[in-house]
């Protein structure tokens, strides 16, 4: 059985409080909403934040009034009849994610910020240790392309392609303020440093 590492769970009630925690904890903190990606990654020791910062208690992230909040669950998107009529590609992308149980927990923001992965990285800690790890985590070789000097793990987000095609923008919030960027500009072609966001969130 894969077990979670020890951590201190924080549950802010506002964007400002979450941003303050992130700024104070620095690299020790990571955001968690539904946890469908981060929790398995923590069990496999891909990511080991000392302070997971939950976004589930921040009501404004779950709103859908002209804009889609990053805290909306994928089930919430699938059950939105107007979304199905107006933006069928996004609706279909959300509907095809995993299983109903995962869609009930998974959020739009989490899906947009999924960790990149490959067959070598997406394994248990012990499995990766047996191959001397990989370039993305603790190793020096990208086993997908051994001559590559960079990690070629890829994004598996389901909703981003539809939202990019629709010209979507995201609002990023940090302790230093807010900024809005085109969703297409949120991503980098790099398996390790794959998001342009700083210590901020959607």
Helix content: 25-40%
Taken in chain order, the helices and strands follow as HEHEHHHHHHHEE
Give the termini separation: 33 Å
**Low-confidence residue ranges:** none
Strand content: 5-15%
Number of helices: 9
User: Structural class of the helices, strands and pairings?
Assistant: alpha+beta
Average of pLDDT: 94
Computed CA radius of gyration, to the nearest angstrom:
17 Å
Q: What characteristic shape results from the CA principal axes?
A: globular
How are the elements arranged and paired?
Blueprint: H1 15-25, E1 29-32, H2 38-43, E2 51-54, H3 74-78, H4 81-86, H5 88-95, H6 100-105, H7 108-112, H8 125-130, H9 160-165, E3 169-174, E4 177-182
Parallel strand pairs: 1-2
Antiparallel strand pairs: 3-4
Structure description:
- The protein is built from 9 helices and 4 strands; from the N terminus they run αβαβαααααααββ.
- The chain is of the alpha+beta class and about 200 residues long.
- The strands form 2 sheets. A two-stranded parallel ribbon has the order 1-2.
- Strand 1, helix 2 and strand 2 form a beta-alpha-beta unit.
What tags apply to this protein structure?
two-stranded parallel sheet, 9 helices, 202 residues, two-stranded antiparallel ribbon, alpha+beta, 4 strands
């Amino acid at each position: 059985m894969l077990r979670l590492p020890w951590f201190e769970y924080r549950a802010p009630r506002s964007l400002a409080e979450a941003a303050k925690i992130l700024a104070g904890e620095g690299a020790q903190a990571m955001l968690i909403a539904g946890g469908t990606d981060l929790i398995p990654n923590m069990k496999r020791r891909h990511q080991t934040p000392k302070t997971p910062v939950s976004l589930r208690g921040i009501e404004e992230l779950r709103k859908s009034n002209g804009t889609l909040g990053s805290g909306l669950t994928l089930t919430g998107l699938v059950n939105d009849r107007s979304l199905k009529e107006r933006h069928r590609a996004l609706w279909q992308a959300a509907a095809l994610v995993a299983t109903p149980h995962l869609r009930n927990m998974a959020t739009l923001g989490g899906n947009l910020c999924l960790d990149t992965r490959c067959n070598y990285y997406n394994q248990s800690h012990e499995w990766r240790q047996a191959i001397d790890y990989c370039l993305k985590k603790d190793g020096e070789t990208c086993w997908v392309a051994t001559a590559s000097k960079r990690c070629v793990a890829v994004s598996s987000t389901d909703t981003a392609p539809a939202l990019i095609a629709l010209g979507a923008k995201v609002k990023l919030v940090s302790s230093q303020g807010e900024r809005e960027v085109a969703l297409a500009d949120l991503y980098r072609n790099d398996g390790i440093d794959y998001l342009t966001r700083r210590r901020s969130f959607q």
